[in-house]
Structure formats: C-alpha cells, structure tokens
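Example 9 (inverse folding). The structure is encoded as follows.
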C-alpha cells in the first residue's frame, strides 16, 4: 500500500489535498495530518516519518493539556500579555529585527521581556507598524531559565532526543526554544542546526511554512553558491543570478493552526511566516534515525573550512587543528566533541541495557527514564546506529590527525564495549 492510499484509508490521517479545511498543501501530493492521539503510536511515527524523513502535522489534540495552551492564551485565542508579564517580565530575551538583514539572517539584540511586550502592544495599536521595525522574539531558552514552569510536555514521538540529552549532561546549553512575534514576523530561509529534525508547536496563532526537501536547496543557490535570504524574492527569477532556480520543485506549503505541531524532517530547508500574533515552542533534535546525516553535515562543514584556508596549509604547523577550531566556531561542534556526544549517548544506553533502571531514576524525567519508556529494542537500535557512525568517525583521516589521547575511553575501546552490549542484549 502506498503512502497516499494508507493516509486516505486510515481514520487518524487527514489528506490535505482533498480537505476543504486543509492546513497544509503539497503540490502533487499531501502532508499527512495526524488527528487522534489514542490511535497514533511512537512506532507509527518512527516507521512513517522519522525513518523516511517525511514531514507531518499533529492536530491540536496533542497539545490540549499543556499549561501554556491554557494560561498563555486569552479566551479569543490571542497572546495573554498580562499573564506572560507576570511570569516572565524581568527576563532578558533575544529579539530579531525582521525588517533588517545581517549577512544571511536578521540582526538580534537583547531586551527585557517587559519591554518587548510593551513594543508588541504598541505595534498592534499602530496597525502593525513601528519605527523600530518588525521585532520577533526568537530562540529564547525559556525551559532552561524557568525549569519549574508548567509550560508544555514533550510528546513521546520526539523523546528520543540526543542533542538535548547531551547538552543537558554538560549543563551548558540546550536546543529548546520559545518564539513570540506579531503578525508579519518571519524567519529567513535556512536548515536547522546540524541538519537536525525540528518540531514546532503553536501555543496560539498561525504560521505559514515553505519547505524544500533535502537536496532541493542546491537548485536555489546563486552563481556564487550562496543560498537565498528570502525564497520568495523576485530576484530568484533572474537566471543570470540564480541559474538553476527553474529546476527546483515548488515548496511544500503548510499553514499551521493554533495548537498544531509541525514535524520538519532532517536537512529540509524552510522559511516561516507568522500569519497572526503567534507564540510557538520549538525543539531541534537528533537521534539514531538521523545521526548519520549530522555526521555527513560535519564532514561537509570541515571540507568547506579546509577549502577556505587551504593556502595556509604549508606554513601552518597546526593547520588541521585550526580547521577544527574554525568549524566549531561556525557550527558549535568539532570532531572531538562529536565523539564525546556519541560516547554520552552510547553510555546512557549501555547503562540501561546492562543495569536497568532503579526506582528513583525511572520516576524522574531523565534520559535513562526516556530510554526505558521507548524500550530496550530502541536502545539497541540507537547503539547500532552509533556503531556505524563511530566506526566511520574513527576511520576518518581528519579525525585521526587530531590528538586523541584526551578521549576516554579510546574510540576502539568504546566501539568494543558498544558491540559487546548489543550482542548481550540480543542473546
């Protein structure tokens, strides 16, 4: 049975291409809409979306019990400014100017949250105009700053989240964000960090998404190899500037309603608009299904750095190390940290397979508890995928040129432990 037939014949999918109330439209096809919480399992999501890397939209029923859906929103579906000010008024938040361009993004500044809300109210009163431009609160680490707030619960479908598992272990960063912005605010064309998956839930308001399947972005590069800032700009029609634009497919368009969650596949470039005053919660995440894509991305990033500074290779004794440093400054990670990332993920799963969970760990919202929730076979799957990527990393010439003595355990020892844990679990 093909995907279209499956979607049309199953009660919990809505085919956007034929529905008069469609919130998404894929030219020549559709994006699956998942309606019922009780009918859709993690295995369904794993099989039909994570592994094939396909987008989908979850209905508002998946978020109806969130605290933010109740208290952050007024009776008529607007942001509840008074409640938000009471809870977060003194916080400092990152704000982007959607009317300005800085390199290939919008310039950002830090503002007190109460000042941003004051701006937003005035922006609405002035007919969505301001001399300050259209300001968009983006990439706010609210969960990290206010961990005890009843804001949301990560749906089980997105719980195999290696990025946040790793950075939580370091207690230094996370990839959980809140976005708030007025009608007309938007995010320029991009793909997510490390070519990760992302999910985005509208607490209130509506968004329009333009999605390009992985690989399609290559047709959108200009004659210098640069991706566009805005994929709707008329300049893309100029063949002398964008010579391959006519070869690109039209984007997948999704209009996301309040309460709905959009799943963005790994490596899919996208551009997003707020059609109303909107608040959303977003996570970036990597797991066993797309960690190989992350590894390919890192290799491409290092190769790009090496091309840029190749003329310094001979006079620079530590050229390979400098390439790693530059890559880390641009992407946030280098090869040695990627090894440590794989190690932390592997050791958490090995621990559960070898020792199980004690009562205290299973009762808490911990990585090991999440691993146990998804089951031992999922932990084995994660380890198998880690073995493949770790084997490739260990054989990589650029990795072998680094000083690996600081890595503990050594890559060979970690690989041996991984394979032994898998064999033992499958007995």
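The amino acid assigned to each position is listed next.
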């Amino acid at each position: 049975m093909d995907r279209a037939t499956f979607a049309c014949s199953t009660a919990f999918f809505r085919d956007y291409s034929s529905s008069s109330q469609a919130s998404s439209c894929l030219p020549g096809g559709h994006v699956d809409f998942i309606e019922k919480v009780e009918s859709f399992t993690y295995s369904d999501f794993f099989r039909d979306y994570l592994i094939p890397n396909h987008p989908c939209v979850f209905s508002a029923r998946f978020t109806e019990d969130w605290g933010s859906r109740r208290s952050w929103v007024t009776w008529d579906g607007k942001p509840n400014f008074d409640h938000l000010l009471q809870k977060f008024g003194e916080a400092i938040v990152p704000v982007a100017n959607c009317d300005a361009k800085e390199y290939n993004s919008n310039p950002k500044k830090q503002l007190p949250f109460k000042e941003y809300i004051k701006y937003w109210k005035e922006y609405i009163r002035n007919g969505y105009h301001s001399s300050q431009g259209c300001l968009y609160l983006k990439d706010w680490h609210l969960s990290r700053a206010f961990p005890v707030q009843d804001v949301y619960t990560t749906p089980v479908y997105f719980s195999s989240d290696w990025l946040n598992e790793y950075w939580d272990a370091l207690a230094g960063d996370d990839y959980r964000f809140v976005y708030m912005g007025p009608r007309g605010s938007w995010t320029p064309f991009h793909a997510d960090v490390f070519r990760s998956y992302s999910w985005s839930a509208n607490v209130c308001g509506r968004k329009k998404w333009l999605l390009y399947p992985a690989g399609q972005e290559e047709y959108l590069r200009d004659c210098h190899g640069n991706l566009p800032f805005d994929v709707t700009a008329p300049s893309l029609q100029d063949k002398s500037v964008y010579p391959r634009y006519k070869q690109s497919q039209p984007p997948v368009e999704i209009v996301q309603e309040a309460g709905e969650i959009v799943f963005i596949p790994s490596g899919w470039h996208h551009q997003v608009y707020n059609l109303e005053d909107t608040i959303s919660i977003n996570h970036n995440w990597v797991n066993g299904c797309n960690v190989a894509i992350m590894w390919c991305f890192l290799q491409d990033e290092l190769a790009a750095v090496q091309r840029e500074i190749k003329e310094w290779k001979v006079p620079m004794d530590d050229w390979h190390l400098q390439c790693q440093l530059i890559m880390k400054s641009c992407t946030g990670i280098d090869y040695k940290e990627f090894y440590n990332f794989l190690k932390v993920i592997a050791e958490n799963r090995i621990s559960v397979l070898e020792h199980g969970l004690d009562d205290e760990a299973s009762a808490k919202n911990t990585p090991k508890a999440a691993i146990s929730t998804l089951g031992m076979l999922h932990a084995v799957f994660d380890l198998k995928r880690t073995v493949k990527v770790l084997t490739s990393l260990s054989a990589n010439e650029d990795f072998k040129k680094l000083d690996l003595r600081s890595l503990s355990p050594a890559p060979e020892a970690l690989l041996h432990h991984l394979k032994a844990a898998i064999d033992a679990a499958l007995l």
